[in-house]
Amino acid sequence: MSAVVESMRKVTGRSTSDIVTRVDGLERAVTAARGRLDPALVDQAQLVAQRAGSRLRLSADHTVVALGGATGSGKSSLFNALCGLDLAAVGVKRPTTSWALACAWGPEGAGELLDWLGIPKRHQVDRMGLLDQTSADRDLEGLVLLDLPDHDSTEVSHHLEVERLVQLADALVWVLDPQKYADAAIHDRFLKPLARHSSVVMVALNHVDEIPAGGLADTLADVRRLLALDGLDDVAVFATSATRGDGLAELRKAIVKRVASKMDARERLTADVRTIAARLAEQTGDGSPGDASSGRDELVAACADSAGVPVVVAAIEGSSLARARQATGWPVTKWLSRFKPDPLRRLHLEGMTQRGEKPEQVRVSRTSVPQATPVQRARVGSAVRSVAQLVTADMATPWATSVRSASVSRLDDFADALDTAVARTDLGISRDPWWWGAVRTLQWLLFVVAVVGGLWLAALAVFSYLRLPDPQDPDWYGVPIPTLLLLGGALLGLLVAALCRVAAQASARRRARRAAASLHQAIQAVCDELVIEPMRAEVAAYAQCRDGIKAALHR
Best label site of 100, 263, 486, 506, fewest CB within 10 Å? Predict the structure, then answer.
């Protein structure tokens, strides 16, 4: 929770304060919406949250009521009548500037509030200080009444000051003139935007003494009709005359009631928060995001194809088979196979040291796998879009755009990341099966037997050629032992090599499948990091924004 909201909780003394909960929700929504929704709207929402926090930290015993109106509406006269002093007419106290005039009843604690409102000291009046403590005006203690500049003044500074204080006041009294109450300027710029603030808005139709006899009822009815069009059909409307005193008692009684309840500040802030939260809700929507995992398999398959995983798997199978032949083949024939290049060496994925040395796991940062073709890259792009579409199918346009942008935000790094993942994956070929060593020993034994038989036969041939006495030539069931050793060692070696070749093919296929699983797992990790996780981060922000808006709009 933000420090602002925490400080508000301490000031209000209510751990479950409704307005604090709303402001907290709005702040969370703003944080999540930043960079995703309309920047101007997000900035405005942040200002509302900050303004609400500032107001809640100030005096809760004062109610700020602002009188607003056009030139000639009698706003200042009404202000003087409510104050019981001719303040607005005294030039030294109300110089012709863009500043508002403030009159405070019960000034204790109001100074900080007036400073926050931006009212200069010279434009602040201590109403209770000007009267005896037994004054009848004591029922207004806690009121801060503002006389705003004319909203239709030719001075731009006046316009800005009115707009600023209208946003800060706890309650508003709009003073209308019988001749200009239908002016579009006040309705479009001020009254319509306050449609959600009807609980803190009052309207005074002033100068009713100037309305021809019998016309007041029709005029009031027309005023209410226009207010209904503005969305303010339930606001209180008072018919007043500062000159004759009409309606002043009723207006004053309504203000006294508001001051006594001390609820206007909270109601105003609640309306502010709910209004801006509703606008955020319009852009956020209420759709549920889809599950990115449902389209991940197709994405991983497309990326694996693009990264050359089929090429690597085929190379692993071929390399495993070649190494098995070298390990288990007959020494005479396997020597020739060493001149064939290892498929993994061509891809820089051999996973072993120099030829003939003991294999060991080697991880490199780049491979020589062929680059992806345009068709393969297009398939990856299509898979990414499909995943994004699954996630954003029910999401509002701004958030859907944000998720789709996140899904491709790191695609520039995709090819290198996939290649690095392939290069650094343990392909499972760094250790030879145990039976390779046993067969290698057997083959060398059979080779030695064949060599012994061959040498024996060669010696017999030499003795015969030199006509030396023949040495004893033993046999086994009529077959000379030297011949049996030569032919038996060679034939058994070739037979063992053939049988091991069948076993090596099955082993190579198993290794290829295990390597394919490891490579797909590595590819999936890249897809999760560069595509899925950025989208999930946007979905999490979307959920935070919706939760925050829900808290801000809570009724």
Answer: 506
